[in-house]
Amino acid sequence: MGPATTTVRVMGEDDRLPERTFGWWDMFVSEAEDPRSDGGWDNNERAVLLGFLQDRRITLELKCSGLNAVQMASQSVPPSDMSMLGLVRHLTSVESYWFCDAIAGQETQRPYCAVDGTDQSFTVEATDEAVEVAWSAWRAQVVASTTIIDNIADLGQLGVGNSLPIREVLVHLIREYAQHLGHADLIRERIDGRVGQ
Predict the structure, then answer these.
(1) Which residues contact 27 (CB under 8 A, 6 or more apart)?
(2) Does the pLDDT value for residue 128 go beyond 60?
């Protein structure tokens, strides 16, 4: 068997990148307009975990702000099929699984998953309707997730649908959002040069 070959793509004249721009120094919005808490929560496990999770959710919305349907669906970091719209859809599915199935023990069909379990979150259409439907589903899932967690007194209790402590599930969700927000940084910068936290 011969050595593996690698194809290197060289950027040409048609691959001009957008100029990098900051919304406000290294932020998307000024500190006075930033809707995130970034700390300052009550000094208890629930407030800190839910505070960090909520800030990550808000960051997703900030990263997508101002993009039209074509930009939301743009798979701008080839060969990846990730897009901002795909990330919104994927995180809806992630929240659905961890809150509804794993914690609450509900047997639900995960959004954007085929019957065989294949994730179709990143198979997107560049239409206003597709973007509106995705945001509506994500916001509805956040409300459902919040209702589930608000009805649980002890974060040490095990999920009904799995044997993980609920505090561990919350940390997993924070990690999941943080990982994908890193992807969103690159996708957004490639779309229009916008960078920031």
Answers:
(1) 34, 196, 197
(2) yes
Topology (CATH level 3) of domain 31-195: Four Helix Bundle (Hemerythrin (Met), subunit A) (1.20.120)
> Half-sphere exposure of 84 toward its Cβ, with a 13 Å CA cutoff?
30
Token pair 């995130």 in the structure block, residue: 36
DSSP assignment letter at 10? P
* CA atoms of 121 and 44, how far apart (whole Å): 35
pLDDT for position 10:
38
Strand, helix or coil at 158?
A: strand
Q: Are 59 and 51 in contact (CB under 8 A)?
A: no
Neighbours of 43 (CB within 10 A): 6
Q: Where are the domains of the chain?
A: 31-195
